[in-house]
Sequence to fold (335 residues):
Amino acid sequence: MSLYSAIDLPHHPGNHPFWQESWVLVFRDPDTGLVGFLRTGSYVNQKTTQTHWGMAFPDGTRFRRHLLDRPLEAGDRTDVMASSGTMRFTIPDMEYCRFEAFDDDAEADLRIYDWYPSQEWEVVGGPGHGTLTSGGDDHGHPESAGRVEGRVRIGDRVVTIENGIGYRDHGYGPRPLPMFRSARWHAGTVGEKLSYSLLTMQAEDGAFAKMGYVMLDGKREPIRDFHTVNCTLGDGLSSIGGWTVAQLENGQTLRIDVEAVDGVVTSTDLNNGGPNSSPAGIEVLSIPRWQGLEGVCDFNMIDNAHRGNQEVSHLFLANTNDGISQRGFDPSWLR
Fold:
């Protein structure tokens, strides 16, 4: 029986003008240390597509390319495939998820073989504690983790991944321009023993929410509470890692420590945030560690306490450059 179902495939869009659908893969190759973030999606009713793409080696060689306002073309969305022109998502024969990406400076063709069926977030705390956040066909955020294999190129540097590790998500539903005060999304895996997605958000009006899920030893465990601590540098945005502590309803406490490898700045309508775009977020591509195991995670953060919408710049670890670049900042002596 396939792990995949209709929840993982493209959905029929609702009527909301900001209805969007997107697929994300975060991956790491333990042999080379290569990490990456691939996102393909579209605002279907606005007839535009988006590609967010960043990859990096531990030595600081990195690639980033966003394509945020490409017109949605005939054939970009089918019942089993979604494309944003430079990136494509499919589930061939319902056996694995495939992410393909194309650029003059880089390429990726990656397959993730999930360990468990897609999971939706549950509300943590408050009157809705323990209920699922998915609205079924209207909106959802199914996520999973698994083994990754495939091929990646950055410039002339080619990597064949045979036993990589990855985390993926699939978001669909209305997504108007967000103006978070802050957000933390720690989602990742250290292998088949532990995968997780833990999100905190403070909205523009100050309302605070927590949601997520934990898969422990192949079983979903309800969450009692959790907090994420993110260590940032003086630019206020570059994260060098941190940790999350989650208390489960079964009485177990998990502490997941995180070491950042690189960061990719992402925003909705503009490359690095700015007027009429969402606040710039950082996809902090990282190594999570738990009980002697390590894997990959997105230690994503948005800090926008004063609700401004200026473009970000002059960052230490987070990448705002287009194309191939070399990181000039070495955080190793700070840890």
